[in-house]
């Protein structure tokens, strides 16, 4: 096992973390340095990859070091704490028995192999948007469901039918939704859902824009997040070109969620 250490600006941090995960990292730690600089240490299992990755991330002055094997799931468990999100939700690690605060829905989370423990700002923004948008009896679609946290939240808020989809079979298994499937919105009939949530990358939202709008019934709404303020205009433009109307936009730090109506 070896680690790859890089330093980057705060505005680059999330995108760089995503790239390191895509290159097969088994775990990443963060360190906030002075003057808006972040240090990232990504761990990899195969030492043979070290020279290639040092070269690939040379722009960030990457350097590698040998490391002892680490249990990343165990480490993640020590860092994940219960949290209240929005007005209605209480997110708690599934191995803890903390009591649910009165008036809140309990959602148990697990930092496994799928995105969506609720710690990220984009997930929190989507949960808060669901509180405002879900109506009893709705049909809701969660595109790029990850752990399925948004699908679970919609069900708790009163959605009658909840569909979760992802292109990764592992995340579909993690989501544990009765209507979870491998694939995306293009597998659904036109005008078949009342509400769509897509907490994914801005590039993917733009590519899927025609399908995200197509599956919505007249008067339906689309919640999108997973992008930062600098990308919000491009996302809104792509959805608007397909007939969506930006109704609201909320933010946490640099992250943004938009609600688009049809």
List the helices and strands and how they pair.
Blueprint (H helix, E strand, L loop, with lengths): L1 E8 H13 L4 E6 L4 E8 L5 H7 L6 E4 L5 H8 L3 E3 L3 E5 L11 E5 L11 H13 L5 E5 L5 H8 L4 E6 L2 H7 L5 E2 L10 E7 L2 H13 L1 E13 H12 L4 E8 L2 E7 L1
Parallel strand pairs: 6-7, 8-9, 8-11, 9-10, 11-12
Antiparallel strand pairs: 1-3, 1-4, 2-3, 5-6, 12-14, 13-14
Strand content: 25-35%
Biggest sheet details: 7 strands, mixed
Mean pLDDT: 87
The count of helical stretches stands at: 8
Which structural class best describes the helix and strand composition? alpha/beta
Please name the CATH topology of the largest domain.
Rossmann fold
Helix content: 25-40%
Largest sheet, spatial ordering of strands: 10-9-8-11-12-14-13
Shape: globular
- Low-pLDDT parts are none
In short:
With 262 residues, the protein is of the alpha/beta class.
Q: Can you walk through the features of this model?
A:
With 262 residues, the protein is an alpha/beta fold. It folds into 2 domains: 69 residues, Alpha-Beta Plaits (2-Layer Sandwich); 144 residues, Rossmann fold (3-Layer(aba) Sandwich). 31% of the residues lie in helices and 33% in strands. The protein has a 7-stranded mixed β-sheet with strand order 10-9-8-11-12-14-13, with helices on both faces. It starts with a strand and ends with a strand. The model has no long low-confidence stretch (mean pLDDT 87).
Provide key terms for this protein.
2 domains; 8 helices; 262 residues; single chain; 14 strands; Rossmann fold; Alpha-Beta Plaits; alpha/beta; 7-stranded mixed sheet; 31% helix
